[in-house]
Specification:
By secondary structure, the protein is mainly alpha-helical. The protein is built from 7 helices and no strands. The longest helix is centred in the C-terminal third of the chain and has 34 residues.
Length: about 140
């Protein structure tokens, strides 16, 4: 019985972690390309236009990501439930699995962010005049 409560608590924490990541990720993506949210995301999730833009982005990020917590954690924790008999070890292993996933996403996020910024934010779209070394880097990346 206690092991089932442990798994339920871990699934809830994994859902909360996925939701927070979705909210933060959406804020960064909105900073790069707000037109994507205006044209597609807000309509998809039926978020009212009169709300604050960052609140709207947060709600969209939450709705887009919360379900990944249970989807990915339930199979992992059920396998842990079958293999680990001690509740304390199950809880510890579950926390370590969630921490490893968060660490992996934090290490991968800067790479994804820089690739998205390069793909979306050209000088013409973002209105940033490049000079000097930045102009050379832009020409090297985009020809």
């Amino acid at each position: 019985m206690y092991r089932l409560k442990t798994i339920l608590a871990l699934v809830c924490f994994a859902t909360a972690s996925a939701s927070v990541f979705g909210v933060v990720n959406s804020q960064f993506i909105y900073a790069v390309g707000p037109s994507f949210f205006d044209e597609f995301v807000f309509e998809k999730y039926a978020i009212p236009e009169h709300w604050n833009e960052y609140l709207r982005v947060s709600i969209a990020g939450f709705q887009a990501a919360w379900w990944m917590g249970p989807l990915l954690s339930i199979p992992v924790f059920v396998i842990g439930f079958a293999l680990i008999e001690n509740q304390r070890r199950l809880f510890s292993a579950g926390w370590r699995a969630i921490a490893l996933a968060i660490f992996w996403l934090m290490r991968l996020f800067p790479t994804i962010w820089s690739q998205a910024r390069r793909a979306i934010c050209t000088p013409r779209r973002c209105g940033q005049p490049f000079t000097g070394a930045a102009q050379w880097r832009f020409r090297w990346h985009y020809g």
